[in-house]
Amino acid sequence: MKIKKGGDKRMSKKVEQIGNTYTSAENRKKQQQRMRNRVVRKRVTFFGGILLAIIIILSIMLVTQIQSNNDDAVERQQKEQKYQKQQDEELALKEKLNNLNDKSYIEKIARDDYYLSNDGEVVFKLPGDKSTGQEKSSKEDK
């Protein structure tokens, strides 16, 4: 039982199609099945492409939304800092206003900054010693 090389190929070429109704029906079924498979592949490819496009679009929208949210968070934080600074300024201004309505504070400012004095008092300013002059005039007030 020696088989010659290439012997199988020659035998497959010698097989011919039988032209009866069964083989014709089988060939038609195979052809229809191939056509269905092509149609199914085309549909899957088409709908897969649409699905992929939708996923890409939604991903882009998600990234832009995240970036927008981050930008808004930074802006909000800056505005909160600005608001806090303005609140601090408002408190300082209210305190200054309350002090300006206080007679003793006005007298102290008049003595320290403008060197005003009550009747019979003499204010001395020492060169380069502003804080000492303020302390002396404050002690004299008491």
TrEMBL record:
Keywords from the named record: Cell cycle, Cell division, Coiled coil, Membrane, Transmembrane, Transmembrane helix
Record GO biological process: cell division
Region (Disordered): 1-33
InterPro entries assigned: DivIC, FtsL/DivIC
Positions with biased composition (Basic and acidic residues): 1-16
Coiled-coil spans in chain: 76-103
Spans traversing the lipid bilayer: 44-63
Listed name of the protein: Cell division protein DIVIC
Protein's organism: Staphylococcus gallinarum
